[in-house]
Amino acid sequence: MGNCLKTSSSSDDISLLRGNDGVNSSYNETQQALNHQVEQYQRVFHPTSTSTPSIIRQQEHLTENEDHVKLAKRIGLMQHLPFGTYDGSSKKARECVICMAEFCVDETVRYLPCMHIYHVHCIDDWLMRSLTCPSCLEPVDAALLTSYETT
Amino acid sequence: MSELQSSLLLKKQLAELNKNPVEGFSAGLIDENDIFRWEVLIIGPPDTLYEGGFFKAHLYFPKEYPLRPPRMKFVTEIWHPNIEKNGDVCISILHEPGDDKWGYEKASERWLPVHTVETILISVISMLADPNDESPANVDAAKEWRESYTDFKRKVARCVRKSQEECS
User: Fold this and answer.
1) Residues of chain A contacting B64 with CB distance shorter than 8 Å
2) Percentage of chain A with pLDDT > 70?
3) What is the bridge-based pairing of β-strands A95-96 and B71-74?
4) What is the pLDDT of residue A46?
5) Which fold has domain A82-150?
6) By the CB < 8 Å criterion, does A134 face chain B?
7) Half-sphere exposure of residue B40, counting CA atoms within 13 Å on the CB side?
């Protein structure tokens, strides 16, 4: 499987975090996790002979012309979105508007910069297609970059 | 989103629409064993040229719904600038999501995973009332709508009559 990603992802990923010096200490750790995740997604995009039929089916429908650099950037960015455990205390969001299922206590949820919350697996699948909050259409990457620049 | 989750979400919507029908259309499945293929009957919206018509359409959901949009096709003949002659509906909210860096202002017009059968049909019904002249799917209908509205009206009226005969 291609290693071409690793070089490009490292420089691109860090370029998203300009102005944030604190990130360097945890850089290696993050990078390892990132590489792992890129590989996971690569497997989806470029299934090898070991891929299951369901993964091949998934691959057929993924966005075309999605190049590796863009993919790595995107995953890097998504990793900086906070997540947490749903504790049932939120009065506002009771259900994930993507799958229309109610949040259960202890489920992992992701917070977008606009503070809308979704199941991690629901929103991550969507962000791989479009970096926009499905509820308010706030662009996720621009919002993130702005917050990094101002802090 | 697995196929199981997609079908659960669609089943939920079908149950909800059966329980609390929405004005302007009725919805069901083409084949009751296939939750991914729906048949809807749209009532021509009042105070429009389509008033009085009953237009049947099919919705084909991908297994990745709601991450990807369904396709919609009118089965009843219909004359409209944004509906192809073969019935395919061309409406921006059914266009695949993308991340055009410079196109954020248009994100709201494209597919979003929060769209349901109900919100799709509400958009389609409003499109019937208010055609979008900018990107016509049926160029002849669009040209007629702009330049010879009387002919356009006559063609739509014929579709409305035909739809009533097919439904009775």
Assistant:
1) 58, 61
2) 48
3) unpaired
4) 45
5) Herpes Virus-1 (3.30.40)
6) yes
7) 30
